[in-house]
Amino acid sequence: MKHLLLLLCAATLIALPSYAQQKSTSTKKGKTIVPVETVNPQKGFVVVETSLGNITIQLNDAAAPKHSANFRKLAKEGFYDSTTFHRVIPGFMIQGGDPNSKNADKSTHGMGGPEYRIDAEIGLTHERGVIAAARQGDQINPQRMSNGSQFYITVADAKFLDGQYSVFGQIVEGMDVADKIVAVPRDPRDNPLETILIKKVTVIE
User: Fold this and answer.
1) CB atoms closer than 10 angstroms to residue 107
2) What distance in Å separates the CA atoms of residue 55 and residue 49, rounded to the nearest whole number?
3) On the CB side of 133, how many CA atoms lie within 13 Å of its CA?
4) What residue numbers bound the domain in which 168 lies?
5) Global pTM value
6) Angstrom distances, CA of residue 174 to CA of 33, 49, 121, 180
7) Is the dihedral of CA 190, 143, 148, 121 positive or negative?
8) Which residues, 6 or more positions from 111, have their beta carbon under 8 angstroms from its beta carbon?
9) Phi, psi of 165 (to 5 degrees)
């Protein structure tokens, strides 16, 4: 029993200097202030700078991770810079993201993109102000894979497209700019008579 008590006392004595040292060290150094990291609530959003104003879009990484990642990648590479909104239909949508739209020949607008397609991520609905990926029709694209860069923004609910196209984000600021774009005069192919330039697409860091 005495032997057990001696062991307990020894253990206590060994622990005490350690605690005293920690307390002393803490007292010498005073309070340690740990800075709180501030996170930009719009980090990862994208800003589409157009000749008629800016549109800020929140991408939906949960519902459409491949489309969201691809859009950010192309934006950071400057892929969209100096392209145009080459198709506008009042009461429906505006479409852009085609590198062919940098050329004067409007007959090629809407036919271009990178040399890859994106797997369909269909699920979100077509409310006013969503961004979704353009694609070829079911006849030649039964898997409904998306064009690698072209996108459209709805200016009205378009429920008839639900279940067919990959929606991957929502406008959070600048819906009035989309409304201005869709209202410009257009030719028989729905291409604006006045060039509606996408100056730059920037990812908010």
Assistant:
1) 10
2) 7
3) 33
4) 58-203
5) 0.81
6) 40, 10, 25, 10
7) positive
8) 98, 100
9) -125, 155
Does residue 73 lie in a domain region? yes
Question: Which tokens is 95 given?
Answer: 């479409």
Spatial CA neighbour of 197 closest among 55, 18, 39: 55
The CA R_g of the chain, rounded to the nearest whole Å, is: 28
User: 188 lies in a domain?
Assistant: yes
Confidence of residue 31 (pLDDT cuts 50, 70, 90): low
Higher-confidence position of 103 and 19: 103
What residue spans of the chain are helical by DSSP H? Answer: 2-29, 65-77, 175-182
**What is the distance of C-alpha 90 from the center of its chain?**
25
pLDDT, tens digit (0-9, with 9 covering 90-100), for 117-126: 999 999 999 9
Q: Which residues pair with 117 in a beta bridge?
A: 147
**What secondary structure does DSSP assign to 150-173, as a single string?**
-EEEESS--GGGTTTS-EEEEEEE
Tell me what the mean pLDDT of segment 135-159 comes to. 97
Longest dimension (CA), the chain: 103
Residue 89 and residue 92: Cα distance in Å, rounded? 5
Number of domains in the chain: 1
186: three-class secondary structure by DSSP:
strand
Q: How far apart are CA 157 and CA 116, in angstroms?
A: 29
Domain membership of residue 7 (yes or no) is no
188: amino acid identity, one letter: P
The phi, psi pair for 44, rounded to 5°, reads 95, -15
Tokens read off for 194: 């006045």
